[in-house]
Amino acid sequence: MLTDGLLDVKLSPGKHGERQSDGDFHPVLYFNPEDVVQLRQRSSTTHGHIFKVIRAAVLTMLSNAAFYSLPPNTRSLLAKDSAASRFLLNFMDRMAAYPDWKVTSAPNDEVPAAHSLTGFATAYDFMYSNLDKRRRETYLQKIRLETEELYELSKHRGWGKQYLQNHQTTNILAILTGAVVVGTQRDPVSMIWKQACVNYMEKTLFLLNHVVDGSLDEGVAYGSYTAKSITQYVFLARRHFDIDNTHNHWLRTHFWFYYATLLPGFQRTVGIADSNYNWFYGPESQLVFLDAFVMRNGTGNWLAQQIRKHRPKDGPMGQSSAQRWATLHTEYIWYDGGLAPQPPHGTATPACTSSPTGGNTFVSFKSGKLGGRAVYDLVHEKPYSWLDGWNSFNPGHEHPDQNSFTFAPNGQVFVSEALYGPKYSYLNNVLVFAPSPSSQCNGPWEGQLGECGKWLRWTEKGVGDGAGEVVAASSHGDAMFVSGEAAGAYSSAMGLRSVYRALVLLNSQTLLVVDHVEKAPDSPLTSMSAFFHNLDIDFKYVPFKFMERYNGALMDVWDAHYKIFWFDSQGHSPDTRIQEAEQAAEFKKRWTQYVNTTFVMTGDVTRVAYVMHGPYVQVSGCRFIDDNRNGVKLSLTINNTEKIVSIATNYKDIGARFNYLGFGGYSKVEDKKEVLRFGLGSQEIPQQAVEEGQMFDAGFTVNLIAGLVLCLVVGLLFAVHRKLYACSSRWMRYTLLSVLFLWMAELLLLSNSCGQLLLCGVNWKGAGGDTDKQQVRPDDRATSLPTIIITTLPGSGAEILQHLFHNNSDFVYIRVPTEHMEVPETEFEFDSLVDACEWSRADAQQGRFKIIQGWLHSLVLDTRLHLQNIQLMEGGSRAGPPLRARGGGSRDNRRRATRREPEEAELQGNLRASVGRDAQNVKEMRRHVAENPTPACLRSGSWPLKLPFLQEVLGPSVRSLYLLRDPRAWIYLMLYNSKPSLYSLKNIPQHLSLMFRREKGEEGVRWAPEFRTLQGLLSGSQTSPVLLLAHLWLAHTASVLRVRFEDTVVFPQETAGRIHRFLGVPLSPASLNQLLVSTSTNLFSLQYEGDVSPATIHVWRQKMPGEDVRVIEDTCGGLMRTLGYKLQHQSCLRSRDTKPWLVAASNPPPPPPHHNLQFNKASSGEYWPGYRSWSLRDRTRMSSLNGEEPAAMESGDLSDGTADRPALPGPQRDYERNCFTTQIHRADHMQK
What is the DSSP string of 96-145? Predict the structure, then answer.
């Protein structure tokens, strides 16, 4: 145990059952007998706040012994308290006398018996020294009988084969606890029980590792139920079996499950799935465990402290008597008083507290697959033979609630869930439709699949395939956008093509919800109905009408009005229906109220908007201003400021999104000052555009005055002419002069307003104008969809980026070269390992390498046709390459044949290519392109020095990503990771020699200067492989811009966000989840080195010879420092081969004000793929994986990646602005 001073002796397996003087064994489940003295001492020091709760619990039980005579679970550490001891011994005597521990209200439910077994066995352990011999034997025999019965039932009951479910973990932990206690008596059957339980729980933790966000699909309440048993198992396995799971990724992220689901005030949580208002068990015990054994940063202690401090004493949010004390003993044992409680980094004050006038706003959104993304994929992809589809899981506690949301402005709950109850769609904040031919209850209305029962009917046909999806989620300051698709969660008989819901939080008080529903022409549906719930009995909904036009509802909270109103794209606003319902929940009844409104579906597409706002903003106008096939635009006037909200509803087509919004995202918000593009950031509207409107207003005014003057003068002219017979020509001249004077004044006004060179080159603003201010203009790169080139040295792990683009409707991921996707042969030959020849823009403009240009045009600009033209061969290689080069003499052919010889040696063992698998990939790409008109994403290893050529051929849409790796890790992989080494297997020296073996003066050869030192090394007779590879890494890396492989693994979310901002396409939650699974869970393997995780990428530190490390750092040290790699040998000098601008940049900028991983306000939302929810709070997030620091962006950010560098040569400068670079500086290095 890691708690401060709790145990002075390190325990090892086999030493925890300590023989007493009478010949018996003490179970020592959680601590040794001698540790009791220290536990008692801490009750008046570090553990005093927990001990007060324990003493209060004991006093409460003693004062009402009749009520607590047989609770399901009782703990007491007060062994010297005679009253408590008598009470406990009396209780245990009566428990031991019962024939079994099942409850009469649920005789087929083993969970109550499991609770009793865990509690009884733990009490037996705690009280062992105070028990006489008779009691020891009696209690031990009872524990053995109950453990055996529960173990035998595990072979037949569903919980014995269903993972990630509260019944399974609770019952298995009970068997394990009983087995450990019985095992102290050398009972041979106990070993069988232990082995079975460890097998169950280790598989549970293995599966949880797939859930990369630390969540549980059963929701917060049942999640605490499951986590209680998991944390106890992890502790017992570590103590008794020497099995350490504290590095499990799910445990490392589980804290955020508790933190992100808290509403302001620390009392209430998101009520997804079967939930009460907060938690069933703990979560203080789970939080202090995570802090003591996993995180070690004080945040778990802080959150546990805040929850206990604000916990309601009574009312609906208070804990039940059966659960409130069930985890006090483990909280006391695990608490580490040496970890000072502190909020997550960046939270100066408690992030969840609320105030009467402001407070924090909470928004949550849930849409996803049954069981969560991880479980759903495990069921459908069947990666493990010991899993039996849905029979291995039990999502019965889930609700039909895809696309549901909650809203709590200022911390005041306005829209909430209906919590634990029967599974009806109308009890959730989702849509239901009518008339439906497949309705099973509440006909003719039907909601989502699996409804109409006490539990979700997940075993019925089609329910297990039902799925929603969080499409997009991003936040910027106080604004947020999140959207989801739920058509897959409804019966196919309803003919729904899309049920798309988008939430736009415009400020902390105003939420816009837009429903886009598209149905098939033959769909029977004619009506859709929306529901909005609130469980707060004190504050009820009443009807409300917005501006005497739109119907809605109002909630009065102490004279503060919270309002909601709705309307469709045709301007219709149906009547408000406010209803109440009472349904069975747990072992009681629960009341809810809800607002209901029903819209008529007049066409194939129906769009509805709902506006919700708090009392501290004024909404004075709202209407649809555009409604077309690709999206909608709405105008809202908030506090006298008009905001235009644009939402792309044709969200699967990135081209349609780009055309409708002007970028590849999903929504934007505009006002007169800025444009907020969700997923990319905000842009100020240039002041000139604002002045332009004012300018033309002034021009209109002048024209109006001129016209009125002209009319007035003409009228006077005729009047005077008739009466005085004055000369009309003179009056006409005066009139024309007056009008001319006014028009000249208008022209001068326009010239002065726009500041341009008008009137013979005179700038009327003058030279003293404000020339220092620069307007933020839209990114000129965002004019077309991107084509991405991913390139790297072989073995650097570029496969990891595949998960950002693969199975993504926004991209087509193409790997080049493969068995079926080859670069055509031309006058220049490619080397798959490395290429030192530069191609410039001039080469493309002069028409060189025409075959390559044509191939690139075909591959990128007409991807569908290119893929269709590939000839797929079954079970073997193709007869020849897909394209042949023109000409090319026999000498070139012989050279190519020689070049391929070492490659044939690579086709052995794990490196042998699978032609069939490659053909299948081509088929999948064909289907993908047919369904999704998307930009291409190429991955190749031969293009770092040819990026200017590529950009000229493919246009300004090209974006290049170069993935680099720590040279020490890369060289270790090439030389030491396998036998034979990759250095030998790939025959690196021969590759490099052939690369430079060109006849002098051969046309088209232009070597990058970074490779000249490498060429000199090859001419030597004895060059060490380490030095050769070090110079190869240096030359290859210094010539391009890059992103670190280590950042992709250790900080995947931050790195992915930067890459997608650079590409101009927001990062989708699904892509982020794929990357997190591949980088954080040991579930993804690289081709040459196996599993990838933050713990495995630095294996070279333990296994690589120190002398080799010194050689690498002496060679590459300068560039490594620039890239943020910490050198082991600080005396290393910068390489003389490093580019001058890299040397100049090697002194990093000052460190940021933090030294931990955090999100800024622009990315403070949390997305939980496994939990299928996304929530926003004004908070930041901290992590400290491997002690690494996140990448710090240069001042230039991703706009051009060239900040603080001198001017580069023409060809490199041309494409520098379109290449992605990340400069990373470790905090410890910066301090030095």
Answer: HHSS----TT-TT--HHHHHHHHHHHHHHHHTGGG--HHHHHHHHHHHHH
Give CA–CA dist 156/842, Å, rounded: 74
Q: Is 222 a catalytic residue?
A: yes
- Both tokens of 1154, joined, read 């933090």
The length of the chain is: 1232
Q: CB of 84 within 8 A of CB of 76?
A: yes
Give dist(CA 119, CA 1147) in Å, integer: 60
∠ CA 533-539-543, rounded to 5°: 70
The single residue of 16, 47, 115, 167 carrying the catalytic annotation is 167
3-state secondary structure at position 606: strand
Amino acid (1-letter code) at residue 120: F
- Tens-digit pLDDT profile for residues 827-855: 666 666 666 677 788 888 888 888 888 88
What whole-number distance in Å separates Cα of residue 1055 and Cα of residue 1071?
Answer: 13
Quote the pTM value.
Answer: 0.77
Nearest to 367 by CA among 218, 446, 471: 471
Question: Taking Cα atoms as reference points, which of 560, 538, 565 lies closest to residue 550?
Answer: 565
By the 8 A CB rule, do 951 and 1211 touch?
no
Residue type for 650, please?
A: N
Q: Which residues contact 423 (CB under 8 A, 6 or more apart)?
A: 399, 400, 450, 451, 452, 453, 454, 455, 456, 457
User: Which DSSP helix (H) or strand (E) runs through 990?
Assistant: helix 988-996
Q: Which residue(s) pair with 681 in the sheet?
A: 677
- Which has more confidence, 1077 or 911? 1077
Ramachandran angles phi, psi of 791, nearest 5°: -140, 155
What does R_g of the chain's alpha carbons equal in angstroms? Answer: 35
Q: Of these residues, 30, 163, 222, 426, which one is catalytic?
A: 222
Backbone phi, psi, residue 98, to 5°: -70, 140
The Cα 1089–Cα 1092 span in angstroms is 8
Residue 607 burial (10 A CB sphere; 0-12, 13-18, 19+): buried
Residue where the block lists tokens 């991003």: 474
Q: Within a 10 A sphere around the Cβ of 915, how many other Cβ atoms?
A: 18
Element spanning 655, H or E: helix 654-661
Of the candidates 189, 191, 200, 199, the residue with the CA atom closest to the CA atom of residue 160: 200
Residue pair 898/891 in contact by the 8 Å Cβ criterion: no
Structure tokens at 1202: 């060239």
Averaged confidence pLDDT in the chain: 77
Three-state DSSP at 1091 gives strand
Spacing of C-alpha 303 from chain mean position:
22
Q: How far apart are CA 488 and CA 337, in angstroms?
A: 49
Peptide bond into 435 cis (omega under 30): yes
Which residue do the tokens 């079996």 mark? Answer: 241
Q: Closest Cα partner for 541 from 513, 578, 566?
A: 578
1084 or 1162: which leads in pLDDT: 1084
In the structure encoding, which two tokens stand for residue 1132, read together? 């290393």
CB 1094 within 8 A of CB 1080: yes
Q: Is the peptide bond between 980 and the residue preceding it cis, with omega within 30 degrees of 0?
A: yes
Query: Per the residue annotation, which of 30, 420, 660, 1125 is the catalytic one?
Result: 420
Burial state string for 1062-1071 with b = 16 or more CB within 10 A and e = fewer than 16: bbbbbbbbbb
Residue by residue, DSSP assigns 912-976 as ---HHHHHHHHHHHHHHHHH----EEEE-SS-GGGHHHHHHHH-TTEEEEEEE--HHHHHHHHHT
Tell the residue number behind the tokens 């590939």, with chain if given.
870
Residue predicted with more confidence, 901 or 387: 387
Six token digits for residue 991 = 């590759």
Q: Which of 414, 384, 649 is nearest to 532 (CA)?
A: 414
What is the per-residue pLDDT across 582-624, written as a single tens digit (0 to 9) for each?
887 776 788 888 999 999 998 999 999 999 999 999 999 999 9
Distance CA 314, CA 261 (A): 21
